From TrEMBL:
Signal peptide: none annotated. Its EC number is 6.1.1.19. GO terms for molecular function: arginine-tRNA ligase activity; ATP binding. It comes from Actinokineospora auranticolor. It catalyses: tRNA(Arg) + L-arginine + ATP = L-arginyl-tRNA(Arg) + AMP + diphosphate. One of its GO terms (cellular component) is cytoplasm. Residues 4-93 form the Arginyl tRNA synthetase N-terminal domain. This is arginine--tRNA ligase. Keywords: Aminoacyl-tRNA synthetase, ATP-binding, Ligase, Nucleotide-binding. Residues 172-288 form the DALR anticodon binding domain. Pfam families: Arg_tRNA_synt_N, DALR_1. It comes from the Bacteria.
């Protein structure tokens, strides 16, 4: 479920909540947003729609939030909906929603999240100078320009010119190459990705990565290059550590359904990185 789809679900619930109490459903904004809380302990997403509609309908914001939470809590896509603060609603998605995102990526392949977008839709606000391009290379300079929403491009060769984690492009490309290498190693061990047991992806890091994959179509739809580069950076960071470290059997461990599920998640992440880099006119190397 994309954030846009979740926002539609929240809006529908808000309209029903007001209508059921004889209040004006027209008070619900045509467009609402859901955001990721800074603290994961507060849920996967949060909405402030109750705060926006309470005044116009003459109700207490926390009471409106409670009506909304009750309806959302009953939806199969929502694991829990809780009222917080003056009238926020914190939402935790059902695990099946995260798993569906992985299935969608693998089913749609390079078409996932793209729609009618092409690399021509993603241009930097300002082009790098000839000197900047000479210092770090054409591909890196262009990516650095795409990575900012400012009208001027500041490219530090000490950052962008090195093959280290401090270089955003290197970090994303390396994550892609690492996932390709993981796939090759899995093939050598006769371990294949499988979407049949995705319910085994129950670790927080795995679900967080799946959620990032679900958000990819919304990010692309905005056609804002810097938003896409930052999202790819988040995906690259999310594939580290526990997600990839246990994707393959270790030592005498026998391959099992959990390995197949983790490899499916990694394959989906690789696809999103490749697609995103392609939209930005950047290569997705298989070896680095």
């Amino acid at each position: 479920m994309t954030p846009a789809a979740l926002a539609d679900l929240v809006r529908s619930a808000a309209v029903r909540a007001l209508g059921a109490r004889g209040l004006d459903p027209g008070a619900v904004p045509a467009e609402i947003t859901v955001t990721r809380p800074r603290d994961p302990a507060h849920g996967d997403y949060a909405t402030a729609v109750a705060l926006r509609v309470a005044g116009p309908v003459g109700a207490d914001p926390r009471e409106v939030a409670g009506w909304l939470a009750d309806l959302l809590d009953a939806d199969a896509a929502v694991a829990a909906a809780e009222v917080a603060g003056p009238g926020f609603v914190n939402l935790r998605l059902a695990a099946a929603v995260d798993h569906d995102a992985v299935r969608r990526v693998l089913a749609e392949g390079p078409r996932y999240g793209v729609g009618d977008r092409t690399p021509d839709d993603f241009h930097p606000r300002a082009a790098p100078t000839a000197a900047q391009t000479a210092a770090v290379g054409a591909e890196t300079a262009r990516y650095a320009a795409l990575n900012t929403n400012k009208s001027t491009v500041d490219i530090d060769p000490a950052v962008w010119g090195k093959r280290t984690d401090s270089n955003p492009l290197f970090r994303v490309q390396y994550a892609h190459a690492r996932l390709v290498s993981l796939s090759r190693n899995a093939s050598d061990l006769n371990v294949t990705p499988s979407t049949g047991d995705l319910e085994l992806l129950d670790r927080p890091a795995e679900r967080a990565l799946a959620r990032l994959l679900a958000e990819f179509p919304d990010v692309v739809a905005h056609r804002e290059p810097h938003r896409l580069t930052h999202h790819l950076d988040d995906v690259a960071d999310a594939v580290r550590g526990p997600v990839t470290d246990r994707a393959l059997p270790i030592g005498d461990e026998e391959p099992g359904p959990t390995h197949g599920a983790r490899l499916a998640l990694c394959a989906a992440a690789r696809q999103v990185l490749a697609t995103g880099l392609g939209l930005l006119g950047t290569t997705a190397p298989e070896r680095m």
